[in-house]
Amino acid sequence: QVQLVESGGGLVQAGDSLRLSCAASGGTFSGYAMGWFRQAPGKEREFVARITRNGGRTDYADSVKGRFTISRDNAKNTVALQMNSLKPDDTAVYYCTISGSDYWGQGTQVTVSS
């Protein structure tokens, strides 16, 4: 059974940075494309970023392009999301997922104050 556990969320001010991490266990991590999604209060869950199995390609939502960077370490079974220049609109619960699967982490709260 695959498990995904996010960490690194918190309360920051606009313009600050945060680094989220997702640790995977129970599967062959290097065989999965990975993604980050987020869900703000009262809104649907939305795509944030995706990274291919070997990290050779990344994709981002337009709203985070140039500010967020997704990366992975297949030796450590982790995927990270570096978030810079945070805005209040980035406030949400952030989820890690295996792309195209039903495997999701429990989420980590990111709150950006103005």
Low-confidence stretches: none
The count of DSSP E runs of length 2 or more, i.e. the number of strands, is 10
How are helices and strands ordered from N to C?
EEEEEEEEEE
With strands numbered from the N-terminus, the spatial order across the biggest sheet is 2-10-9-4-5-6
Q: What is the 3D shape?
A: globular
Structural class based on helices, strands and sheet pairing: mainly beta
Largest sheet: 6 strands, mixed
Tally of individual helices: 0
* Strand proportion: over 45%
CA radius of gyration: 13 Å
What is the mean predicted local confidence, pLDDT?
97
Helix fraction bin: under 10%
**Termini, distance in Å?**
40 Å
Could you please describe the fold and organization of this structure?
The chain has strands at 3-7, 10-13, 18-25, 34-39, 46-51, 58-60, 68-73, 78-83, 92-98, 108-113. With 114 residues, it is an all-beta fold. It has no helices and ten strands. It is globular, with a radius of gyration of 13 Å. The mean pLDDT is 97. The termini are far apart. Helices cover 0% and strands 50% of the residues. It has a six-stranded mixed β-sheet with strand order 2-10-9-4-5-6, with no helix packed on it. A four-stranded antiparallel β-sheet has the order 1-3-8-7, with no helix packed on it.
